[in-house]
Amino acid sequence: MTQWLRSIALWLLAPVAVAAASADVQPAGAPDTMAERVKACIVCHTTADKAGRDAYYPRIAGKPEGYLFNQLRNFRDGRRHYRPMKLLLENLPDAYLREMARHFSALELAFPPPEPLAIPPEEADLARTLILRGDPARDIPACTACHGADLMGTAPFIPGLLGLPRVYLLAQFGNWRNGGLMRGQAHDCMSEIAGRLAPRETDALAAWLAARPGTTARPADAAAALPAELARRCGSIVLQSAGPQ
């Protein structure tokens, strides 16, 4: 483990009972708050999206609590692959991951300016159709059906799609389509949807979404209105492992 990763791990593990041996390295007088404990996280996940040497670090502030909890568990348990995240989270229990998710979900959102819409009008129309109506003939639902009418997410476990760079959205489509890099506890609908979309369609969707400004609206709490099967797939860890709020 590199020196910086070891240092970050000690910050994360210090407050956890299973890592009591690490607690001795916590700076004297440091407040015992979640904001203090997650300082290791904001080394990479700041108030703006950031590209590193080997990864892209999205903003996580304001995303739905259940979504963040699912992703933390996915990294820890090997359903989502990025070795530094796995090393940092491998000894943390579910209850602590839930506290971390709750902390970041309560933070205010900060959005960069939207990107220019650099695609032809017919490509923009294609993206708008898929986002608002989907393609029933190919069993592709509208993006708004899951991610909310304003595309800002559906609490507690479906993230928003606005305020994200085009290259990040394209990478996520690729991860879902190729399999193995991102998967949930239950079989994921996003892997199926991404597999049905042509590269031209994902290019158009990423460009269109990146050109839309994010809003200050919190994710809509409409999970109860989702079809039962969708809720099971997207919220499997939250609903089955974490129990009620």
List key phrases describing it.
245 residues; mainly alpha; Cytochrome Bc1 Complex, Chain D, domain 2; 2 domains; two-stranded antiparallel sheet; 12 helices; 2 strands; globular; disordered N terminus; disordered C terminus
Structure report:
- It is a single chain.
- The protein is mostly helical.
- It has two domains: 3-105, Cytochrome c-like domain (Cytochrome Bc1 Complex, Chain D, domain 2, Orthogonal Bundle); 121-242, Cytochrome Bc1 Complex, Chain D, domain 2.
- It has helices at residues 3-13, 34-37, 65-77, 83-89, 94-105, 121-132, 143-147, 166-178, 189-196, 199-210, 228-234, 236-242, and strands at residues 50-51, 56-57.
- Strand 1 and strand 2 form a beta hairpin.
- Helix 3 crosses helix 5 (94-105) and helix 8 (166-178) runs antiparallel to helix 10 (199-210).
- The radius of gyration is 19 Å and the shape is globular.
